[in-house]
Amino acid sequence: MKTIIELGESAKAAERILATTTTQQRNDALKAIANVLVEDCDEIVKANSLDLKYGRENGLSEALLDRLKLDEKRIHGIAKSVLDVIKLPDPLGRVLSEKQLDNGLKIKKVSVPVGVIAVIFEARPNVTADSAALCIKSGNAVILRGGKEAINSNKAIVASMRRALAEASLPEDCIGLVEDTTRDSARGLMCLNGYVDVLIPRGGKGLIESVVKNATVPVIETGAGTCHTYVDKCADTDMAAEIILNAKAQRPSVCNACECMLIHKDIADEALPKIAEKLIAANVEIRGDEKVCTLVKEAKKACEDDWGKEYNDYIIAARVVEDIDEAIEYIYRHGTMHSECIVTGNKTTAEYFLNNVDAAAVYVNASTRFTDGGEFGLGAEIGISTQKLHARGPIGLNELTSMKYLIYGEGQIRG
Amino acid sequence: MKTIIELGESAKAAERILATTTTQQRNDALKAIANVLVEDCDEIVKANSLDLKYGRENGLSEALLDRLKLDEKRIHGIAKSVLDVIKLPDPLGRVLSEKQLDNGLKIKKVSVPVGVIAVIFEARPNVTADSAALCIKSGNAVILRGGKEAINSNKAIVASMRRALAEASLPEDCIGLVEDTTRDSARGLMCLNGYVDVLIPRGGKGLIESVVKNATVPVIETGAGTCHTYVDKCADTDMAAEIILNAKAQRPSVCNACECMLIHKDIADEALPKIAEKLIAANVEIRGDEKVCTLVKEAKKACEDDWGKEYNDYIIAARVVEDIDEAIEYIYRHGTMHSECIVTGNKTTAEYFLNNVDAAAVYVNASTRFTDGGEFGLGAEIGISTQKLHARGPIGLNELTSMKYLIYGEGQIRG
Description:
The structure is a homodimer. Chain A has helices at 4-18, 23-39, 41-57, 62-68, 72-87, 126-137, 151-167, 183-190, 205-214, 237-249, 268-281, 290-295, 324-334, 347-356, and strands spanning 95-100, 106-113, 116-121, 141-145, 175-177, 198-202, 227-231, 258-264, 285-288, 300-301, 315-321, 339-343, 361-366, 384-385, 393-394, 401-412.
């Protein structure tokens, strides 16, 4: 088993070769990966069944076991996702700016790979292949560190992918796996300065916080999403009800789901019962402030912990606010700068909300569930950045690149 | 004296107001700052004389005392730099992409301020006003933490700038100063998550390393520059000599100065004596490997420490290499990904170097001294990023912005 530093060294060496490959070479490697995953389907399912067995023995919930499970259909799905990445435009070699200075120097800014990307993730083994495909396409080597629950599946998937890289004449170390799933290995990866150019954590709040606290390598924070929908006094209340229902209940476990609705006091009497009816019919529990509980008899009284909470469940917090400024202030205090929405028919109010709410995605009259690389037309994504540097919102292929300046001279010196 | 957290809170509150100001409002504030700095010239010089007195008592070198010194002429220069920032285009509100999806959603990606920028710097008080001006222009609040050597100067300059902000009807907390110059205050700032959106260290290697190791807030690494010039076998040796002389000796103390030259073995006999003659005439000491010492009798024998060293002085390391691959490998091992140059008349060789050297700026036939926001036409810069995320190379106004997605719907929900 390689040490973390050995993994870093071999990824760095592989990345230097990968960085200068053509689009065709990288796409060929992705094709080989998709093929080999399908070829190796039986072995992968077999390895996965070990993880499922240990998972059951260790009392993993049915929901987690389901996320962990791989069968032929899912592996074909994973292979298909890898093939989809081939169709996306090459993010490398884009000319980001170009100019000629008065002294004759030509300066070109072009996109290049970031280098070595480390991904720490939890139980879902599909993340292994998805992340690797996006990294290879963007010319980056990747070091994967999954959870112990999926270690056998991850080993099998990575072994297949590395074999495919070799078949496609690329260094197999373009994809590395941390086989040690102790906390030490995660900490080691977080501090692998000089080898890891960026670390992307994919997982729950605990993981993200640990990475932010402990990492000395650059990090792109992802994930945590406490999203709000504000229903303005000029809202179409039927539209508001549809949007909130969708944002909450279409898939409550994800980061772009709505966790709290804020209703303008002037429209609360009309809007709240209408919204509540739809939510309750979809088995959503409402936890409201006093006014909400007065208007919706099924609502439970919210406690302090409910404000700013990411439920990831069929629960929504609800509050009546005095005006848009109170809504914005509340979002500032309790949001995670992920996705925020206003429902309003008033354009000026909409612009005010767009300008004053600081989040990766700010919506007028649409469900926050659209914050997604696929939906935004970026193709696949490796996560949703909730930080403000480098990438914000869905992290697609372009966000996995850096840049460099190329300067062409004829002997120019500085005076 | 405000605590670090209080500074963070007040900067955050100020930033929210600053973020929604118009170009005119921010430019007016810069004008006010320039005016007040000139008005307050006497007080600033007086405060600075205290720093100079303590500096002399504490044995600061003449070079450092000179960097610390402010007089009327220098303060007018600082004010002029602030006025120059007014002329630069507003980096906020740029539409970075725009599209309409099939479902009718309109998605616009626009540039917004990063938020609160912390700058930790050392003895030069001009950095105080320069950094503040760039931050204000780009809609960011700034928390400045300078060295203890300049604390009286910094207090005076910041007091003037805050008064100017108030005169221009902007919150004075858009510019904050950490008055506590102990190590604790720097550490506090490095871990001010939730308040500081990015920390930019400006200073020597020790400062940068401390920030990378200790910061939990996002960081843009700057500065350290061990730059190389490779003279290819197809080089014009006169051009090579001029470029290396300029890159080394025009201003040796800066990060884009050349610290090491690598000479192809086939051209060493002709090139090295020619280059050495110019360098020696400019009082540059050459520390070479064996071959260099054979060809240049004035060269000293380099020791292991000389390879990869940032001298910031009239000293240059020199090596003869077998071929371009050895040069690239050497740069990979010893460079800091700042600025690297090849001198060659062969276009294919030039492209090979450009593609295979990973640095913020890669040059063909020009002095590395051009890596600079002003020279690149970005206007002023707050530093040179040597990391690969967010900003690489000169950090100008655009690099001090983040982005957000604005999404305009008519009730769209996700299916």
